[in-house]
Amino acid sequence: MLQVKGDIDINKLIILYVFDKMETALSERTLVDVCSSSNNWVNYMDCLNLIEKMLEDGFLCQIAAQDDKIYTITPDGRECLANFYIKINKSLREEISNFVKKHGVKVKNKQECRSDYYQNKDGTYTVYLKIMALVQPTLELKFVVPDKKTAQSIYKKWEDKAAELYYVIYDTLVD
């Protein structure tokens, strides 16, 4: 559903509602993707500007992060949402809730799982894999693999396999 782009207060409430439904801190990239790119609930540029405005207003706060800005809703933001969420069209609230139910885990995994690869001088490839907590990596792995095809395969599978691999490593090393 396309939200009325000119209503700044409603757009702020939409962003707060997304935080509330996701129940986690969100990176700027994730928030903009969910609200603008994937769903068109809030215009892309408005979303970026509103994040800054909501920081100034005390509705969001930034958590220190290495690679990406991470935000969370503040008690004032929760109070504002509790008082005014009804101003968000009911069908849009349902759409946001359904999106989070259907895609919330994948959105969180995409935010937390990072991967990259590059070619080494000897023709092999190095693949970096990370699971990010809010401010620091929970797990970092580095593999040297023989070819680009293997590097790409690991890179593509990481987001779906990261949690499973983390638990296997943890269970193996911790008694």
What would you note in describing this structure?
The protein is of the alpha+beta class. The protein folds into two domains: 104 residues, Orthogonal Bundle (Arc Repressor Mutant, subunit A), CATH 1.10.10; 62 residues, no CATH class. It is 56% helix and 19% strand. The chain has six helices and six strands. The chain has a three-stranded antiparallel beta sheet with strand order 1-3-2.
Fold topology:
Elements: H1 8-22, E1 26-27, H2 28-37, H3 44-57, E2 60-63, E3 70-73, H4 75-84, H5 90-112, E4 113-119, E5 125-132, E6 137-145, H6 148-173
Helix pairs in contact: 1-3, 1-4, 1-5, 2-3
Radius of gyration: 19 Å
Helix content: 55-70%
CATH class category label of the largest domain: Mainly Alpha
CATH topology of the largest domain: Arc Repressor Mutant, subunit A
Identify the strand order in the major beta sheet: 1-3-2
How does the overall form come out from the CA principal axes? elongated
Spans of at least 5 consecutive residues with low confidence: 1-5
Give the overall pLDDT as a whole number.
87
> Biggest β-sheet, characterized?
3 strands, antiparallel
> Can you identify the CATH superfamily of the largest domain?
Winged helix-like DNA-binding domain superfamily/Winged helix DNA-binding domain
What's the number of extended β-strand segments?
6
Beta percentage is: 15-25%
- Terminal Cα separation, in Å? 50 Å
Number of helices: 6
Q: Structural class of the secondary elements?
A: alpha+beta
